Each structure stands twice: as structure tokens, then as C-alpha cells.
Amino acid sequence: MMFRTALQKRSSPPSTKNQPTKEDSSHLNTKDNIINNNHLSSQSDSSEDRCKKAASGDTQLRSQSNEVRNASKRKFEQEDRNCIKSPGRLARKRIRDAKHRARSELVTGDLFSAERYYCTMDLEKFRTNFTNSLDKLPLEISKEMLQARPYVIDRIDGRTLTELEFFERFEKPKIPAIFTHLIDDWPAYQANAKWSSLAWLDRKFRNQKFKCGEDDSGCSVKIKMKYYLQYMTSTVDDSPLYVFDSNYGEHPKRKKLLNDYKVPHLFQEDLFQHAGEGKRPPYRWIVMGPPRSGTGIHIDPLATSAWNSLIRGAKRWCLLPNEVPKHLIKPQASDNCSKQKDEAVTWFRYVHPRVTSAAWPAKWRPIEFIQLPGETVFVPGGWWHVVLNLDISVAMTQNYCNTGNFKHVWLKTAKGRPRFCHKWYRTLKKLGREDLIAMAHEVSRNNPEHFPNLAANLSSSDSSSDTSSASSDSSASVEEVVEPQKAKVMPISASTSSSSSSSSSAQEVAVTAKDEFSSSSLCIEETTGSTEVTLGGTNVKQMAASAAPQQEVLSNSCRNGGEGGVMGRGEESLVDDADLSPDTSDDDSGMEEQDKKRRKVAANS
């Protein structure tokens, strides 16, 4: 029986339970066909498509690595901020004193945080609400306007440019730019170290004072680094104090910061350095500030160009061309911001909506972008710009003059800093920079309103250059200098004694007297040490008084003269103090020299 059962099982047909039906087999066949078709189509893909897929894959990998890097960076910055303790009683006192001195207009009523920007202003929106592509520009911007100047800035690898290429593409046409990888070799830009670390700054420069503002008299307001770091990580002020220090390179301890960076290779030419480190205007700054801090709308002093390298944080920039009228890009009286009208946060709240609205002229549309760590922004001379810090930021910036902007810098410097211009001109002359000397003469001829007496002098300088250079030689004796002037002095006094002489002749007398007396009077004062100069029995001051219209000009010319040297008619008279109006309306960089003068006066008193 058992044998029969086993035999039946062995002889019975196989079960169809797990066998596919016709429908299932057709489905399998269809699936196999799809797989085969996909395989064939994948083989038929062009190399171009495969390259696109590979590029997209690389982009995804790159974005993922950037996200990981940014996450680790945010983690470090948060831990770094936690290393800075909250301000104690003494720190709060020092911070309060600095705020009251630097922002005295906000003391009454305690208006430092009256607008409550720390909770009402969303800084994250400033990272995105700007045009960063040509496709998003308004239709009013034509191709001709795009050729005239840029409206969107692209990031350029600075390692691929030479100094000459940078000069031709950006410096000469005055085009702003953002360069990457220029500071990769800076010790200051080491990841999670040096200037990127608040803990490192606190440890290395804890008790060193840095400038964070100016008081009502123009003197610097300074605060120790340890107190400022505590303030920077805890402040709720609408527009916090901003470290903007230019004297760190002259301090025995703070000058160690100079070892942590170097000037990028694109900005190596600096003509101001020929005038001497102690004489040149302030030109380099270490910049540090919390969110909502920054610099208001301005043009860099003396028409210089600038580069700004960001080491930590993020900055929102807005640039406008030079032809935009000043009153249109300043806060208006109706904005109700009189207490903080010059602050960056105020500008972005009130003025920025106007300059980006549809009613704003398309030709004046601003250039906007976000500067990230490791990027260097180039700002050509003459461009309006305003900067707002979106996070705790540390940067290095420097202004410079090179061959590309020398004409504009020369005009501004001769007007605002004539004494410095004397030394600068003589140094360039000694170095044999005839190209720059020719530019200086050209600027002087083309701007007679700023050089009223120089325009006439330069026209005849070729015929009288030998005589004037001989008369300005400091090695000549007093008799050799005075004797040739006797024949010229007598007709002047005779013409001025005539009662019928016109006002124009009196002015010519004064101009001639200034030109002829300046070099000889200075030479006499140097060789003899006397305080009164007599030419042919006539006192110079009395002769100047006889020419009434130019009395003050003559006395100033004889009293001030050149800076430590003798002025010749064909050379240093190009930037004579009497020919230049001390217009410093656009020069806000001379405060450090004023601070030194005030300290000297206070010490003497």
C-alpha cells in the first residue's frame, strides 16, 4: 500500500501552482522587452548626454560637499561664539563709555536699540532679494547700457588673471569685480583658526585696543579686544559699533597682524608708498563687526580704488555709479532717521527700496551681491558703495593708487592734502616717473579752477625752466639769489605806487611777486635763519601789502612754502599751497593725523 502511494506520487504530473500563466508570461516578456529597449537606448545615448549627466552628478556631489562644509563651519562658529563669555560689570561699563563717546547723539533717551532691528529686521532676506543674473534685469536696460557698465557681477578665479589683464579688464574701465582664491594662502584665512576664530583673537589681542569710532571732536574711540568681542556676540543695538582700525601696523604688538596676510598679486602697484609710510594717508584697515553693523553710503577718499577680502561672515554690498546725485541716495528728512541717517542699516531700510524700485532710472540701477569668506571685492575709485554685515564678520581692506587712477587721485590729493602732495611729487620726480609727472601737469592744465595761477605758469615753464631751477637751488648763496631779483622788484613797486593802476594789473603784480619771491625767500630763511626777507631794500611783506587783492595769498606762500624743501617755479610750484583750495569734503581719511595733532596740543597744554 505504501509502495503504491509513493509510486502514484512519482508518476503524477507536476503541480502547476507555482508555474506562470499565459498572462504572466506575456507580462514577463513585456518587462524583458522594456529592459532590453532601455539598454539599447542607453547605448545609443550620445557622448554629449553622458557628459551632461556626469556634470550634473559632479554638481550634486559638489553641492553635497559644500553643504557638509557649511554645516561644519556653522557648528564651529557657534562653538566659537560660546567661548566668548557674557559681558561682566566692568565690560558693560567700558562698552557703555565707548558707545556714549562714539554715538553721543543716541545717549539722550537711550536710542541705541529704539528701532528694535535685532528682532524686526530679517537679515536672511538680504541674502536673496537682489538680481544676480542678466535674465532677471528689467527690460529697460538695453544692450548699450550693458556695454557701458555691468549690472551683475560674476565671480572670477583670481589665480587665472595677471596684473596686466586685471588692469585692462577692470582697473582701467573702472568695473567692479569679485575675485576668488586670492587669499587661500593667507595665514589669517586658515580654516577655524587665526582671524576666523574669535577665541584666537581673544587670546592673542585680549588687552590691545582697537578703534571703533570717533567722538564729536574727531578723536578716536578705542576699546580693548576682550570687551569688544563680548559686545559683538551679545549686542542688540540697531547699528552696533564697528571696529575700523588703521593704526594696527604701527603698534608693537598689533603689528603682528601684518604677518597674517599679504597684498594680492592683482593690487601690487601702490604709488602712495613712494611718499613714505609715515607721510601717506591711512590706507589699510582691519574691519570687524556684528550683524547690522557696516559702513554707510560713501565714495572712497582721494578717488582711490580699494580691495576688500572677507575672512569670516557675510557682507551685503550695494554699488551705484558715480553720476548718481548725492541727495538721491542719502536718507531724506521724511524718513525720520535723523539720529542714525549715516548708518548702513538705515540705508538698507529707507533708501534701498527706492533705488531698486521700478521708478528708479534704469541707467542708475545698483549692483548688488553677497560677499562670502575667501572672496575679494574690487571697488574702483568713484563708485558709491554701502556694506551691511549679515553675520559676525572679519575682513581686511586696503585703498591704493596706481597708474590707472593716478589722474583722479592726483587732483583730489592736490586739493585736499597739498603738503603731502609736495613730497609725493618730488619723490616721483626723483624716481624718473616722467609718465606720472606728465599726467600731473595735464590734470593741472585741464582744471584751472583748482590751479588758478598754475595754468599761466605752465604755459611759459618751458622757456623759464632753466632760470627757475637755478634760482631754486639751495646751494646758491644769498647774494646770488637776491641780486637777480632787484631789477624785477623795482618795476613792481613803481607800478603799485601809481594811483591809476587797474585791479587787473595789481593782480598780475601779486602773481609775479609770489612766483618770483617764493623760492628765493625760502632759500634765504634756510641759509640765514632770519624771519624777515628783504629784496633790494624792500620788505617782501610790505610789497605783498601793496598788492591788496593778493595779500593773504602772498603771506601764506612765504610762510608755508614747501614741505621741507625749496620750491622751484617749474617743479614744486605745481602743487603750491597758495594755488590749491583745501577742499576736503570728499576726504574722510585724515582723522588719524588730526588725532595726533590734538594729542600734541593737549600734552603741551
Summarize the structure.
By secondary structure, the protein is α+β, with helices and mostly antiparallel strands. It has helices at residues 2-11, 22-44, 47-82, 89-102, 117-120, 143-148, 163-171, 198-204, 225-232, 344-350, 352-355, 406-416, 418-430, 434-446, 454-459, 461-471, 478-497, 503-528, 540-546, 551-560, 591-604; strands at 155-157, 177-180, 209-214, 220-224, 243-245, 284-289, 294-298, 305-312, 315-320, 367-371, 375-379, 384-389, 393-400, 534-535, 538-539. Strand 3 (209-214) and strand 4 (220-224) form a beta hairpin.
Structure description:
With 605 residues, the protein is of the alpha+beta class. Helix content is 43%, strand content 12%. The chain is built from 21 helices and 15 strands. The chain has helices at 2-11, 22-44, 47-82, 89-102, 117-120, 143-148, 163-171, 198-204, 225-232, 344-350, 352-355, 406-416, 418-430, 434-446, 454-459, 461-471, 478-497, 503-528, 540-546, 551-560, 591-604, and strands at 155-157, 177-180, 209-214, 220-224, 243-245, 284-289, 294-298, 305-312, 315-320, 367-371, 375-379, 384-389, 393-400, 534-535, 538-539. The strands form four sheets. Strands 1-2-11-8-13-6-5 form a seven-stranded mixed beta sheet, with no helix packed on it. The protein has a four-stranded antiparallel beta sheet with strand order 7-12-9-10, with helices on one face. Strands 3-4 form a two-stranded antiparallel sheet. β14 (534-535) and β15 form a beta hairpin. α4 packs across α9, α12 packs across α13 (418-430) and α19 (540-546) packs antiparallel against α20 (551-560).
